[in-house]
Hints:
The complex is a heterodimer of chains A (140) and B (420). Chain A has helices spanning 8-16, 69-73; strands spanning 21-25, 31-32, 47-51, 55-64, 82-89, 94-99, 115-117, 138-139. Chain A has 140 residues and is mainly beta. Chain A has two domains: 2-51, no CATH class; 55-139, CATH 2.40.50. The two termini of chain B are 28 Å apart. Chain B is α/β, with parallel strands linked by helices. In chain B, β10 and β11 (411-419) form a beta hairpin. Chains A and B meet through β4, α2, β5 and β6 of A and α5, α6 and β5 of B.
Amino acid sequence: MSKDLYSAAGFYEFVDEKKLMGTKCKSCGELYLPPRPLCSACHSEEMDWVEMSGKGKLEAFTVTLYGPTRMVEAGYSAKNPYCVGIVRLDEGPAISAQILGFDLSKPEEIKVGTPMQLNFIIGRRVKRRRPTSGSKPHSA
Amino acid sequence: MAAKRFNRGVALVGAGMSSFGAFPGKTTRDLFVEAFKEMHASVDKGFDPNDIDECYFGNYSSSQFEGQGFTAPFIANAVGMNPRPAIRAENACASSGTAVRLGITAIASGIADMVLVGGYEKETDQPTEKVTEILATASDNLYENVAGFTFPGLYAALATAYMHKHGATPETMMKVAWQNHENGALNPKAQFGKKISDFIKMKQRSAEKRGKPIPEWDDDMAFLRDPRANPVISWPMRLFDCSPVSDGAAAMLLVAEDMAHNFTDKPLYIRASALASGVPMHDRSDLTTIETATKAGEVAYEMAGVGPKDIQVCEVHDCFTMTQVIATEDLGFFARGEGWKALEEGRTARDGDRPINTSGGLKSKGHPVGASGAGQVIEVWKQLRGEAGERQLPGEPTLGMTHNLGGSGQVCAVHIFERG
């Protein structure tokens, strides 16, 4: 049902199926990730789901020592920091995601432009059973 | 989004602020009363508060910080403004830049002749982690927070994109902090009105008191490079790259231009008011700029009929150090990729050719988010009237600008002021 709405609920339902889904405007072809029900470019209301390849490049990142409660509850701390960044997908749109696969003790060696491959973090959920982190690209 | 004109002119004739800092026991009402009293005293020829027509207040989230929602009528009550219209503007850290704009448009429309505008925030009652979470509700709750982004994290990510493209380094950011603390040390209202060398002396005195070995650093930059003195918060951002958690308020009096001289012989005329909204960070095509700031800046210049070269005083939204560098490019003071060099060459220092954040900026002065945009206007007021004391810019500047970001830069309010 949520999948008919081109909404966050629909997006996260697909994430549960390990699919990264955006929407494509039927009128002008503009591609959106996350999905949206209304085209920002031409204001058309006609959308289609479209699956993303999950391949892309790291565009910006940070290694966070003091995270929000949900990351602290997942075991992260100043002594065990995590990397989060923005990955530009080959299809064009970019997405916020936790970044895995780097040595976080040497953040200066993490390079913008590193190829990324989508992965899914299973089981980290918040209240109301909504999946918290849809995607987790890691360095390829 | 083209520049439009005011139906009639608007002037700033009074401005005041509380100190910014941590004030246990004081509420936003207390802080705003302090700002109001200073504003009242600043109006050269005096005024009767009963003549005020409307009130516009910036406040991000007293509901989360103080457990008090719906603050506009309470604040209006605290300064004797009921039953006048009182409206709270919420645009995250650009809330009071937005309130200033609403006050201006009320007068420009003709519905009001005199308007009280300002902003207030009370953050320090909450522990730091809670403050971080409250601020994070202004980022994308559906797609950014869930990945682990905090506000320092979002702006740190912008910094990595900027550094990668243009060659700036973490040293650039340390130099922003150094410069803003040099300015803030001359601002008696600043929360951390201390130079980096003052922080060094504090650490040394504190060690001496506790009978510990006294730490030494070769110079101010060595202190900022030392991870014990300046720890990483969200790489590449360290403690001294982040603006503080603050309490504070600011207030000002706007009037119709043709009334300005009833209040003062030194009014500031509003030459431009621009506000832009934008997309969350992951939706931007370029992470080395903040497009709302570029857009609001362009509209403001067009509205005022001036260009970046004409601006002599400018307060930019340095919520994090690299943001200041990016702001100086977004506003057209420097070409893309040149802002960090200009900073490192000292061009944005108080004695440089393009002084930025003479108040100390949010970094040193403090960042009570709902009051920060209004606080910027207070500095422009002082500088353009020659009342900025030890930090006064030479040459009797006449044209000033404020740049107030909201959230991760999803909103930017830009105003231009001219001394009459």
